[in-house]
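hey can u run this one w/ zinc ion bound, need the structure tokens asap thx
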Amino acid sequence: MTKKLFYENPYITTFEAEVIEKGVDEAGHPFVVLDQTAFYPTGGGQPHDIGTLNGVKVVDVETRDQAIIHILEQPIDAVKVKGEVDWERRFDHMQQHTGQHILSAAFAERFGFQTVSFHLGKEEATIDLATQTITEEQIQEAVHLANTIVFQNKPIKTIWVDEKDLSQYPLRKPPKVKENIRLVIIEGYDYNACGGTHPHMTGEVGPIQVIGWEKNQKGIRIHFLCGFRAVKAFAEKQKVLQTLNRQLSSQDATLKDAIDRLLEKQHELEKALGEAEEELLKHEAAELYQKARAMDGFRLVAKAFVHREITECQKLSRFILEQAEQTVVLFTTKEGTRLHMIASRTKDVEGDMVKLIESGLSLINGRGGGKPERAQGGGETDLTAEGMLSYLVDQLEGQRVAN
Ligand SMILES: [Zn+2]
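ok here u go:
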């Protein structure tokens, strides 16, 4: 069995050991088992350490059949090895993991919200709380208590106990193992069965900050950062704030008002722009109507567009017909390989616009429909907007003759 140096002293980063087993695992990766190790294997919500053995990279550390397996980038021949644990990564894990103990205890202590699961990710950590509701005030209260425990710099003790001794400790939930139970204790605050690595004092965890929360199937998921992650996040957010303040000539306290004003202004501009565009369309409608072709018993406004939005064409058609009498409007527009047709008429003209559109659709692979006075359709085709328009005009004349 491997001696777990990370339990004897979680601050050990270099050590010497003997290789007691080596081989290649099912996935083809070389591995070694040592007589003692400071490499923490994945477990209890804490990810594995990385580092080197005799300068060879340790890429993964796992527990398999009670043995701690060091997965290596290349095989090692030596019998004796010198190990080096990547302390930055390990200390980060210790901060997030211990911060989780402290934050979970704060939610349980203040509001009775038990933590049902924990995840330590690359960017952030999360806990799931067994509650259906939570308020921003409750979160801030728990965060405040958690940071108070950090600033009180309380000792974090680790002891090994048997199942029969457990009743002496106010554990929040029963341990998963029956023997060799490892208790992690923050005196007077939190008693937890845990196999992870923890610093000696709560102060080492550094600031604990909740950065968001949402509802999920398990209850409420809390996203949080501890230690250097929280410090780094503060610096990054500060940078974003400074940039925004520079752009908006504001300060932190006035930034919200500056953004509100900006959004209001944008809303006004959009409204004004919409009105101006409508005016422009009305002018265009009047112009098109003036140039309308005289047909047998009605006036025809026909135009082919390229890259013109359908909704704009529809509006234009509506504006023409609003002022007109005995008029038919035919528009086609093409965007890439997509062709669209709009056919509409005033009530005092005969002719079925649906039939007209259907005749156009018979040329292309498309769909459409509408009412006798107003119909549209479109589809994918090589045919140009001009080509389709002249076809529709011919059809319209034919339809009239047939009527
Ligand atoms: Zn722990």
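Residues 144 and 305 are 63 Å apart (CA to CA). anyway lmk if its weird
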